[in-house]
Amino acid sequence: MAKFMDKLMHGWNAFANEEKGEDRFVPRGTTYGAAYSTRPDRFRSSIANDKSIVTSIYNRIGIDVAAVTIQHVKIDQNGRFVEGIKSYLNECLTIEANLDQSARAFIQDAAMTLFEKGTIAICPINTTLNPAVSAGWDIKDMRVGEIVQWMPQHVRVSVYNEKTGLKEELTFHKRSVAIVENPLYSVMNEPSSTLQRLIRKLSLLDSIDEQVGSGKLDLIIQLPYVIKSEARREQAENRRSDIETQLSGSKYGIAYTDGTERITQLNRPVENNMLKQVEYLTNMLYGQLGLTSQVFDGTADEKVMLNYFNRTIEPILSAITQAMKRSFLTKTARTQGQSIEFYRDPFKLVAIADMAEIADKFTRNEIMSSNDIRAVMGLRPSADPKADELRNSNMPVQATEGAPPGVAPEADPASDPGADAAAQDALMEETFASMEADIDKLVSDSEVPEDGP
């Protein structure tokens, strides 16, 4: 009964409001702000790219970049991962980047904007301290901005303001924002790059297709008289209008002409190499970006995907993480071992049939524990303490239970190679001594005494 009364007193329902028309989410006297039918902060490609294969390339690479985990971590002096750091920056990179985007959506937005513009600025919006006053500030949320103006020590950035719902231009110091340049800029963003040439060729091919599919016949009608006077010209116009009316008004598009008139059609198929050039540029672009058709249709094997990650995804992730590392972490923080790193799951492309063999090798060589393997497979961790130990379960374990603190356990002769060798030597010496005594006894018994009976 107490739980039921508590639900009635404190429960809330979005539709259970008696006053009709009253806003349930905004306090009375306030407004929502600017409203749109689509998300105003969402990335949008240019018109030239929106209708071509370029957008699909951007989207595929952006998804793969966002699939890799980026974290604010602590590393040792050799650059090896130690632990994750609980900070606002790490929450932005792993959970929520801002009010509108999750961490994965933010990274995908950054990658696709980087491909489109060539250079982006990752801007801190809310921080714990003023970046202009103190260097020890932490980022509560951040957004991707487009750099519209470059200055010696500052940049002018167009970034979305979540309070007004509009994109506004702000000036940031270059040390306060992470400026990321596309590592594939010469391939994707240069005016004469392969991608830009492909975009222009695709635009020309689309315009040709639109002309072919526009429904025009492109006919020349040769009339049986010379058109020099105004009366003949008017008569020719009437004849042309009559044929257009017949074609548009006929059910099957049929018209009749006089026996003395000749009609010539101009839109015959003309051979051109536009499609071959598009195919050539597409294959060249795939090669320069480290892409294959198997990556797009999902039939690429592990070796092809590894090559694609090393040649395409890794440079982009390195550019993003290094830009954030140099701007968002002070020199003191980097000296203390703080870093921003990306970690790829090596088991994503492993089939279930091969997982058993990999798990056996990793646990036998003490690389991963049993619970680490279970986490990769999506299983709950085992409560057994041995499941968290890095040891080979196929080898015997020394008896350590019952030994008092500070006292080393007794060595097991079976597991000590030196003890085994000493025991074998002692056994051989004892055997040889026994054999020698037996031989001496036999020899003494067989000897005949000199003094006969």
Outline the structure in words.
- This protein is α+β, with helices and mostly antiparallel strands.
- Among the domains are: 47-190 and 302-343, no CATH class; 194-276, no CATH class; 353-390, no CATH class.
- It is 43% helix and 15% strand.
- The chain contains 15 helices and ten strands.
- It has helices at residues 2-10, 47-50, 53-66, 88-94, 103-117, 185-188, 194-212, 230-249, 274-289, 293-297, 302-328, 331-335, 352-364, 370-376, 417-446, and strands at 69-75, 81-84, 119-127, 139-150, 154-161, 166-173, 178-181, 219-222, 262-265, 338-343.
- The protein has a five-stranded antiparallel β-sheet.
- A hairpin with a 5-residue loop joins strand 1 (69-75) and strand 2 (81-84).
- Helix 3 (53-66) packs across helix 5 (103-117), helix 4 crosses helix 5 and helix 7 runs antiparallel to helix 9 (274-289).
- The radius of gyration is 40 Å and the shape is extended.
- Mean pLDDT is 81; it is low at 399-403.
